[in-house]
Amino acid sequence: MKEKRKLKLKKFYFHPITVLILMSIFILILTLILSIFQVQATYNTVNSATNELEPTLVAVENLLTYDGLKSIISSSTNNFVAFAPLGMLLISLIGISILEASGFIEAISKRKLKKLSKYQLTFLILFIGTISSLVSDIGYAILIPLSAIIYELNKRNPLLGIITAFCGVAFGSGISIFVGWTDIKLIPYTESAAHLIDSTAHISLTSNLIFIIVASIIIPIIGTIIIEKLIAPKIGKYHFHDHTTGETLKTSELSILDIEEVEQNKIAEEKNEKKGLRISLIVALVMIVIFSYMLVPNLPASGLLLDKTENTYVNQLFGERSYFHLAFTFLTSTFFIIIGLIYGFFAKKIKSDKDLIDKTASKFRDIGMLLILIFVTSQFLAIWKKSNIGIIITSWLATLLSHLDLSGIPLVIITLIIIAFANIFCTSISTKWQIFSPIVVPMFMQANVSPQFAQLVMRVSDSMTKGITPFFSFFIIYIGYLNLYHQTKNKPISIHGAIKLITPYFIIISLSWILLIIGWYIIGLPIGPKVTPTI
Fold this sequence. Notes:
2 strands, mainly alpha, 535 residues, two-stranded antiparallel sheet
């Protein structure tokens, strides 16, 4: 009887949507219990005007009250509409769908990407994913769906493409080839915390630049080996389907006349493809030049995408009100749309506007489940944020760190681990650093470690566990796309299953991050121009 019962349990699977609903209910109940016990925490923030610590008390908010439930219900629509992954994904999908419907992705894949080995393609996606954090979280919305299509066209499992793209963006978060929005978010807190020890301390925008450039190459190299050696063999085979009929591809018998006609059509098609590809790539280059000119200040009609109310160029480029930062998803999608239209027209792949619109719209027919998943996730994360549980756990961990008497390598390692663990419950890098910086930065400075290196430890810790927490809003795009391409529909990939797929990547990359930052500290290499790990 026990064996039969076990077999029945193995055949039963909770869909991620169901799991998120159950988790939401659990959090609601948990807020009631924790509020009864008056669970709370206090953390200090630095007043930048006075350079003094100011305590902030945060308590668990009981959401199982009339006001709590009323707040959840009344804000549900806004939670969904304002949910960042929703807008980013939908805008990105419009551009990607036109790019795919026009045949551009298939052409570029057939003529360019198929020449790459599987290791080269994996490295390319991981590298692009890593440096995509230069501009917010756009990599999740663009690279995940794009990688799935590219892998499928290259006769590789699209699930592997999704995993590769997600790992590249999540576990390389905050690491890029240039200073970006991460630096803008962290530096004010780092500098304010450093002023507790040294009122003259200054943290430049390039203080972590050398390290992040080197890491943006090393981490994708290690990641490529993990993906191809450990994850790819376990993903399994994928049954490819014809996009027009939906049936499994089969070889049909053709007559000699049919073969000749097919060959002639193929030659004409290839000629059109080459022409379309050549012209579309030229247009792409022109558009990149135009976009780049819009980012150059102090030239005739230049700097249109910059926020000229800011004093520094980086703030003009990546600040909260920067047109480039705010409109990057739209600009990227527009870029894809124009390239797709140009290619489709000159390659004669687009027969009419109706044909293009129908093909583009067909790409949206399968995302109903994903939209429901995003809706449920937006409510789940709104409840989690309103409960204050994540902030309280982060505050407790910061307090724990403050009571440890450490220095040197042990201090660096323990700080890495504690902040990485806190990141599971509080994924906002600015919120975490607001809580941790008044503790970490002075501790590091008193141990003769520079505040710039403390900031580096923060951004590395943030990237270590970004990909394994369901409390991270963009995690939902990853698990949603896994299930869109998962062919066993009666056995959906659960949240646990999605994390299990990338566990080897998480473990090895985390160890790599620790070894890299410890090695850098021991050798004393500069982490930025004229900035070293020690004071």
